[in-house]
From TrEMBL:
Nucleotide-binding among keywords: no
Source species of the chain: Ancylobacter oerskovii
Name the UniProt record assigns to this protein: C-type cytochrome
Domain Cytochrome c: 72-158, 171-249, 264-347
One Pfam short name: Cytochrome_CBB3
InterPro entries membership: Cyt_c-like_dom, Cyt_c-like_dom_sf, Cytochrome_c_Oxidase_Subunit
Keywords: Electron transport, Heme, Iron, Metal-binding, Transport
């Protein structure tokens, strides 16, 4: 009998506490204004919980790539950091902005992040964000390659001088055209090779470039770097940028020379795997659709990465994407890098 009474009292006590909490929240007297900051114990509890969450879920993150600290990954993420991160976290060129200092909690400086977090922990934070802090998840789910590029950048940030940061994040100056200047941060004014950090877009089909920009802008093709870069472009901007880069030297329809297995796939496909010749769509044939990209002269790492994204169905953007996804699935894994190298002109 005593157990039953005690249980009822416990339930009644919990109900009273719950009702009191609801009444307190309804009253509006709890000050949640950012100007008051957190109590010290609240601040400690939130950060303690966050550290525990990151440590636990980092076990589910994949192993970092072997080239995590490569210069091309650092360079690839620098412009995005300046545009999408520095206004809260600051940069080697700028202390923490005044608005960020008045957030609750204030965004941390990231110059010591590589000492506090392992690569897999950083991957979890960058990829999934942190609730109640204003830290967003990565804009493009499924783009682990972009998340790892940002992790590589964060690992390089503590040793980065203001001069190096400026060169990486802003690229060459382009006067008189702010829209082109924003693109040139990463792609340069001519859209040429960038040490593997970005694709070659100089000489690409104008139709393909315009369609790609629209696909990123409208969310049909996912990429955290590009979606942020193009979200405010007008149709006129898109047409002008596509025309500018299409008129630059770079990619071509000329098939590289070679006689190896990759060259055979490019010219003849893999009939036994129902893979058509790459050149049947991407080559210089009179039947070539201008909405299909040129490949000759493209960066090998970029091409191989796109083929793997196609295999994972993590890249879309046009009506041709499902076709290419099926073809990429049928290509043997060990053929992807040689095929990309062949089109880049660095393989056989």
């Amino acid at each position: 009998m005593r157990i039953v009474v005690t249980g009822r009292r416990l339930l009644l006590g919990l109900a009273v506490l719950g009702g009191a909490g609801l009444l307190l929240a309804w009253s509006g007297i709890v000050n949640i204004g950012a100007s008051t900051g957190h109590w010290q114990i609240t601040n400690w509890a939130l950060h303690w919980g966050m550290r525990n969450y990151v440590r636990t879920y980092a076990w589910f993150e994949p192993e970092p790539p072997a080239d995590l600290d490569a210069e091309r990954l650092v360079r690839r993420a620098a412009g995005h950091f300046e545009t999408g991160c520095a206004f809260c976290h600051g940069s080697p060129l700028m202390p923490t902005p005044v608005e960020a200092r008045h957030m609750t909690p204030p965004p941390p400086r990231l110059t010591g992040s590589a000492d506090k977090w392992t690569p897999r922990e950083l991957s979890r934070i960058v990829g999934h964000g942190v609730k109640y802090t204003g830290m967003p998840a990565w804009p493009a789910r499924g783009r682990a390659d972009e998340v790892w590029a940002m992790v590589g950048f964060l690992r390089a940030l503590p040793q980065m001088t203001p001069e190096r940061y400026r060169a990486l994040a802003f690229g060459p100056a382009v006067s008189g055209d702010p829209v082109l200047e924003a693109c040139a941060r990463c792609h340069g004014q001519d859209g040429g090779a960038a040490g593997g950090a970005f694709p070659v877009i100089g000489g690409q089909s104008e139709t393909y470039l315009a369609a790609t920009l629209r696909a990123f802008r409208e969310g049909r093709r996912h990429g955290g770097f590009m979606q942020l870069a193009v979200e405010r472009l007008t149709d006129e901007d898109v047409s002008r940028l596509a025309r500018h880069y299409a008129e630059r030297p770079g990619l071509s329809d000329s098939l590289p020379s070679g006689t190896g297995e990759a060259a055979g796939i490019a010219r003849n496909g893999l009939p036994q795997a129902d893979v058509p010749a790459c050149e049947s769509c991407h080559g210089a044939s009179a039947r070539r659709n201008p909405a299909i990209p040129r490949l000759a002269g493209q960066d090998a790492g970029y091409l191989a990465a796109q083929l793997r994204l196609m295999r994972q169905k993590a890249r879309g953007g046009s009506a041709h994407a499902p076709i290419m996804q099926k073809i990429a699935e049928r290509l043997p894994e060990d053929s992807l890098d040689p095929l990309a190298a062949f089109y880049a002109g660095t393989g056989r």
